[in-house]
Design a protein that fits this description.
Elements: E1 11-12, E2 15-23, E3 29-35, E4 41-45, H1 46-50, H2 58-62, E5 72-73, E6 76-82, E7 91-96, E8 99-105, E9 111-117, E10 121-125, H3 126-131, H4 137-148, E11 156-157, E12 160-165, H5 167-173, E13 177-182, E14 187-191, H6 192-197, H7 205-213, H8 226-239, H9 258-262, H10 264-273, E15 280-284, E16 296-300, H11 301-311, E17 315-318, E18 321-324, H12 325-332, H13 336-344, H14 349-356, H15 360-371, H16 378-382, H17 395-408, H18 427-441, E19 448-452, E20 464-468, H19 469-474, H20 482-490, H21 494-503, H22 518-530, H23 537-549, E21 557-558, E22 561-570, E23 576-584, E24 589-593, H24 594-598, H25 607-620, H26 632-646, H27 658-667, E25 674-678, E26 690-694, H28 695-708, E27 709-711, E28 721-723, E29 733-735, E30 741-742, E31 750-752
Antiparallel strand pairs: 1-2, 2-3, 3-4, 5-6, 6-7, 7-10, 8-9, 11-12, 12-13, 13-14, 15-16, 17-18, 19-20, 21-22, 22-23, 23-24, 25-26, 27-31, 28-29, 29-30
Length: 755
């Protein structure tokens, strides 16, 4: 290790070495230094002093000078003091007031120069203010550039002599411009870099003089005319393979006459003889031939465009008028070839639009009439009806195919009700085909359908028959209950129906004549029996006849209901509906819609359903519910059990029975605005510790109770604390003032408020 030299009384920047202050862990010398400006002392490594790394006192440099708002430092006006940066240097918000020149337009529309302050607001370090920063960076660079700018006044650059600086243009384009006089006498404004680099030599007269001296440009002097552009365009698309239009002209053998290709003057004279004017264009009469005097003509742009449409088949001429087929076919949404036929046949655009609205068979009839030279009008075609060719196969074959499809075709919509449930077709019919099916079932009458006698069995000769469509619709069992499925089995045979009635408790089952009811009547009778309504055949027919014959249902009995009077009401949409006031056998009066009575859908006020439900519960040994789930006190009872479980509170055993709980509520005068309140928080839920009170009174009582016993926050000593229930099993508090979470301990003071 090299021996450290003595640095006492030496000065390094702002620091003066006072004495040695030991060494660091690496054995390097540490010196106690004192700032010459502020007297601040600091221990600094000797190596940092010698290498001039430590020359500035951060203490005095970071100490901000107290600038007042509005104080001026050069062109800067102090606005306010900002926070110090990470190095503890003071920042100041300043506004630059350095005068600058701007270009404005006066009332006469002339551009003028006007002085105004810069106005930029930015942050400045206090060190830079003290070191001499007097304006913003943009203004500083602008002033510096102006100082370093050379004065070119009086100097000559080629044909230009500099007169003075053009301040207006210099400010407008933010670059140095000089007003110069050319040898031709013109005065122009030129950029400084253009003058010094030699790019700007004149006002533009030098280029024109050079061009006049060149003889190559004086062949004909017509290069600026539109005919020259047309001539050069024709040469490009005929002979230049790089031209985008070459594939439509040069590749297809389109060429230019040798005379026109060699000399523009001959093309120019021919065009003038043909009466060429500005805005016209050249056109080939035969689009398959080249550009020659015999095959070319001069047309206006409009006529040229219309001829192009005709050449491409997009337009046609009808009665001396050109019609755009593309536009008409787009409007009518038909093919352009069909549109051409209709136009050539003499139809106008309105008639073509009417033709487009015809049906397909009517359009075909109209076009066939045109081809056969016996045209008809669009109105006549509109009256034509489509001829349907009937298939010459037996009507029984359709039923046979439908039967196979719904049993074996998964794509058939009815497959899930037949094949999907295991319903199939007798193998004899599958192997023997339609002939065997026809021999077993026989011919089909009009409006008859194939029907299975037992809906649980397959299609077979013993289980199938022809049934009228109406009766077959009544026997469909898709989506019905198991009881209704039983009906579909019993309906065909009278003896089975009587057995069904006797099984379900009908007292007149054996003496009833079912033949007079018909299939639909038997089905309706069985449905009523399932619902508990037992009628004789005569009573059933009398009820049905009364329903069909008269609209006044007063005095009629439907199931357990006796119709009293007629009511007319309006629903939400304002539609009128007929209601009937009915008296049930249980004594309740209810409004029922007329359609429900006529269709025998409503047979009681609801008591019949309750009886059926209770019978089912007794049969299945199922304990019925209390029926209080929609009452307001049911939620109170449920919440009581939940609160008791979550807070480990005891609950009275009698209150576990909702009926006993309801009796206690009734004795206390309960209504839906009330809530249960505990007298003592640890006393449990029982009649001695619970009272009923309004919700707002309970909230007020809880607030007073919480304020009567307060817990002080150990951090800020504030008593505005609340329980934080996020952590269960721990009495945790949160201070609303400082958001501090804590658990009360011995050092936390409990304060009892004086009320």
């Amino acid at each position: 290790m090299v021996k450290a030299s003595d640095l006492t009384n030496l000065i390094y920047g702002d620091w003066k070495v006072v004495s040695r202050d030991g060494s660091n862990k690496d054995g390097r010398a540490i010196w106690q230094c004192e700032c010459l400006k502020c007297g601040y002392q600091k221990a600094i490594l000797g190596k940092s002093l010698v290498s001039k790394k430590a020359t500035r006192c951060n203490e005095c440099h970071s100490r901000a000078k107290d600038y007042l708002p509005g104080e001026k430092v050069g062109a800067l006006v102090i606005q306010r003091h900002l926070k110090n940066d990470k190095h503890s240097f003071a920042n100041w918000l300043c506004r630059c007031q350095q005068p600058i020149l701007v270009v404005k337009v006066n009332k006469d529309g002339m551009k003028i120069l006007e002085k105004k302050p810069c106005g930029k607001i930015f942050e400045v370090l206090g060190i830079r203010l003290r070191s001499g920063q007097k304006m913003c960076r943009e203004c500083s660079s602008r002033v510096g550039a102006k100082k370093n700018q050379k004065d070119l006044s009086g100097q000559t650059f080629e044909r230009l002599t500099v007169i003075e600086k053009d301040e207006l243009k210099s400010v407008e384009f933010n670059s140095a411009y000089w007003s110069c006089e050319c040898l031709c006498g013109a005065i122009v404004s030129v950029r400084q870099d253009g003058l010094t680099s030699g790019n700007s030599k004149s006002c533009g007269c030098l280029q024109s003089d050079v061009a006049k001296g060149l003889k190559n440009n004086l062949i004909h002097g017509l290069s600026s005319t539109s005919l020259y552009s047309i001539h050069s365009g024709v040469k490009q698309r005929c002979y230049n393979s790089n031209s985008p239009a070459y594939k439509y002209y040069g590749e297809k053998g389109i060429s230019m006459s040798p005379e026109w290709k060699a000399s523009f003057e001959s093309f120019y004279h021919w065009a003038n003889e043909m009466g060429f004017q500005e805005g016209m264009s050249i056109d080939r009469i035969d689009p398959n031939e080249g550009y020659t005097q015999e095959n070319c003509q001069i047309l206006s742009r409009e006529h040229h465009y219309m001829k192009t449409l005709r050449d491409r088949g997009i337009a046609t001429i009808i009665e001396g008028e050109q019609i755009n087929l593309h536009e008409v076919s787009q409007k009518a949404n038909i093919y352009s070839q069909t549109c051409r036929k209709l136009l050539e046949a003499g139809l106008k655009e309105e008639e073509i639009l009417q033709f487009a609205k015809l049906q397909l068979h009517q359009k075909r009839a109209f076009l066939n009439a045109l081809e056969n030279d016996s045209p008809i009008s669009v109105l006549e075609a509109k009256k034509l009806k489509k001829k349907i060719k009937k298939q010459n196969y037996p009507k029984e074959q359709g039923s046979f195919r439908s039967m196979l499809s719904r049993c074996y075709n998964p794509k058939d919509p009815s497959f899930k009700y037949y094949g999907g449930k295991g319903i199939g077709v007798d193998p004899r019919w599958i192997l023997g085909g339609f002939r065997k099916f026809y021999e077993d079932i026989g011919p089909k009458e009009e409006r008859y359908h194939i029907d299975r006698i037992c809906v649980e069995r397959d299609y077979s000769p013993e289980n199938c028959r022809w049934l009228p469509a109406r009766d077959n619709a009544l026997r469909k069992i898709r989506g019905l209950t198991p009881e209704e499925k039983k009906i579909s089995v019993y309906v065909p045979e009278g003896n089975l129906c009587k057995k069904f009635l006797e099984t379900h408790g009908h007292p007149l089952a054996n003496s009833m004549d079912l033949n007079i009811l018909g299939v639909a009547g038997i089905k309706k009778m069985l449905e009523l029996t399932l619902k508990g309504v037992f009628l004789s055949s005569g009573e059933f027919l009398a009820t049905q006849e009364k329903i069909k014959s008269q609209k006044d249902l007063t005095g009629m009995r439907v199931g357990r209901l006796l119709v009293i009077e007629r009511l007319i009401e309006r629903d939400k949409d304002g539609r009128t509906r007929i209601m009937w006031s009915c008296l049930c056998e249980c004594g309740r009066t209810q409004k029922i819609r007329q359609t429900s009575l006529l269709n025998l859908k409503t047979l009681s006020c609801g008591c019949l359903r309750l009886e059926k439900t209770s019978q089912a519960n007794q049969k299945n040994k199922y304990a019925p519910t209390h029926g209080y789930s929609k009452e307001p006190f049911y939620r109170l009872w449920s919440n009581l059990k939940i609160d008791a479980t979550s807070s480990n509170q005891s609950i009275d055993p009698n209150w576990l029975d909702i009926h006993l709980f309801k009796e206690w509520l009734t004795s206390q005068g309960y209504h839906k605005e009330m809530k249960i309140h505990l007298k003592e928080q640890s006393g449990g839920y029982n009649p001695r510790n619970c009272i009923l009170a309004l919700k707002k009174d309970i909230h007020k009582h809880n607030h007073q109770r919480d304020r009567s016993s307060k817990v002080l926050c150990p951090r800020c000593n504030d008593d505005y604390t609340v329980k934080n229930g996020k952590i269960q099993g721990c009495q945790r508090y949160q201070c609303k003032a400082c958001k501090f979470n804590f658990v009360p301990s011995d050092h936390v003071a409990y304060v009892t408020a004086v009320t």
